[in-house]
Amino acid sequence: MPRPDELPTATNFVRELVIADNESGTFGGRVQTRFPPEPNGYLHIGHAKAITVDFGIAAEFDGVCNLRFDDTNPDTEDTSYVDGIIADLAWLGFPIEGEPLYASDYFEQLYDWAELLITKGLAYVDEQDGETISAQRGGYGNAGIESPHRSRPVDENLDLFRKMRAGEFGEGSAVLRAKIDMQHENMQLRDPVMYRIRGVHHHRTGALWNIYPTYDWAHGQSDAIEGVTHSLCTLEFDSHRALYDWYLAQLPLPFEAPRQTEFARLELTHTVTSKRRLAKLVEDGTVDGWDDPRMPTLRGLRRRGYPASAIREFCNFIGVSRTNSRHQIELLESFVRTELNRTALRRMAVLRPLKVVVTDWPTDAAGEPVVEMVELANNPENPDDGTRMVPFSGVFHIEQDDFMAEPPPKYFRLSPGREVRLRGAYFVTATGFDTDGDGNVVEVQVVHDPETRGGNAPDGRKVKSTMHWVSAAHAVDATVALYDRLFSAEIPGEATGEAFDDLNADSREVLTGAKLEPALADARPGQVVQFERLGYFAVDTDGPALFHRTVGLRDEWANIQKRS
Length: 564
Ligand code: ATP
Ligand code: MG
Hints:
Layout: H1 13-24, E1 32-35, H2 45-60, E2 64-69, H3 79-92, E3 101-102, H4 107-119, E4 123-126, H5 130-136, H6 154-166, E5 175-178, E6 193-197, E7 211-213, H7 215-226, E8 230-234, H8 241-250, E9 259-263, E10 266-268, H9 275-283, H10 298-304, H11 308-318, E11 325-327, H12 329-343, E12 345-347, E13 349-350, E14 353-358, E15 372-377, E16 387-392, E17 395-399, E18 419-422, E19 427-435, E20 441-448, E21 466-467, E22 470-471, E23 476-483, E24 508-516, E25 528-531, E26 535-540, E27 543-551, H13 556-563
Helix pairs in contact: 2-11, 7-8, 11-12
The structure holds adenosine-5'-triphosphate and magnesium ion (MG).
């Protein structure tokens, strides 16, 4: 089974298209793309795919990729999202140079072009309400109904449109519509709305505008203003392409109009990638915020310990196609694990501690238990990372489930009479244990074999288990958060149509009593380490009093591949 990062890079039809354009001389060999987020939420894993495509294509062909905020909808947009998106982009490995671009910077030009369309008899003011307009559009196989205002004279349209801009009409009392074809088989071309009246504050233009362009009217025109050649977007905009082209065809562009190309959205199992839904998780308090480690947002994944490089490699690996599909989240995790296996330092941590006493442990002249330092590799995958010294003494912690008073067959960890290896330290054999009133084991007694110092027996005898441990006197206390899927269903909402019905009520388990080896007190915020035998854990942004489990050690994607 090849590791995912050893498989050949998937095909990318967008790349092939650009190569063909360059060969035929379309756009004069120029390549310019843009990434156009709406600043109404933070970036998520789906955006990471769009970013790697948009920026990747530009980089590969010595072109430019603009970050353009598509800020045409003042209701839900906010400057904090603008700053957050810029920061997240930089973290992912795509820092922008200079200032970002904004569709709102083009409002004046868009307005002028709208007047041009009116003058050409290609746009009109409709004073019907939204419901009526939408009902008159008809449906597939249902004829559309022309608005009674459709044939207004140009002058009247111009006058009304200027009054809309001047704020003389109330919200919802009029819209500007393109005059295309109410019988067109593509609904997008049945006289789409270009402007609506909104009396709200815009995060950049303030109270300057009373009318705002729709996405469709703003998007292609913004592309043209910037000189974009390849406007790459997701498949749901497929039916908008005809409108994109129609608008551009009406304008006096002195160059080749940009061309829209759609590719499949990235969807993951057990995950939702819709900003509306992600915002609701935050609003409802289902998660702690946009950067909750369970969120598929870039800031959530970062806090969880996902390396940006692993996300980029995953996006490159899945490639770009025109077929919608859902990838297994285990595949993404596999990239994360592969990267962390290379880079994460190994450390010992006990999440659910059980006290173990070495009854034959020596004491020093002052009667204190001897403390020995054992040397352990920081990362066996990378000898350059060196070693560290870890204190071992007469009392230490192991995981509660690493001891069983009455072990079933094939349980090879510690149990009465059983000898095991403590990683890097000694062979120990359990001699007894104490229980509390409920029968829970609260302490285990062991004896050690002084000949096995370093964790190997000179007589060559073997043990079936090597366990991690943390010296009780030297342990650092921490809280560790374990995570499970935020949505228990592979396809959230598949059964009921509502993704939130599949929320996993047990997606987080917080363990407050974890015991860590002393070196972990120096772990940096954001650093990811491997807790031996347990998985990869990220230091919280506030420091090593809190760790988040990034991924476990087992490659579940490989298991899935084997089963299928
Ligand atoms: P959402 O449905 O999450 O609100 P959106 O498309 O409205 O997504 P935008 O901020 O408008 O979000 O998206 C910016 C760019 O990212 C667009 O080009 C969009 O096509 C792309 N994008 C958004 N979601 C995905 C996804 N899941 N996979 C790939 N590209 C995506
Ligand atoms: Mg959008």
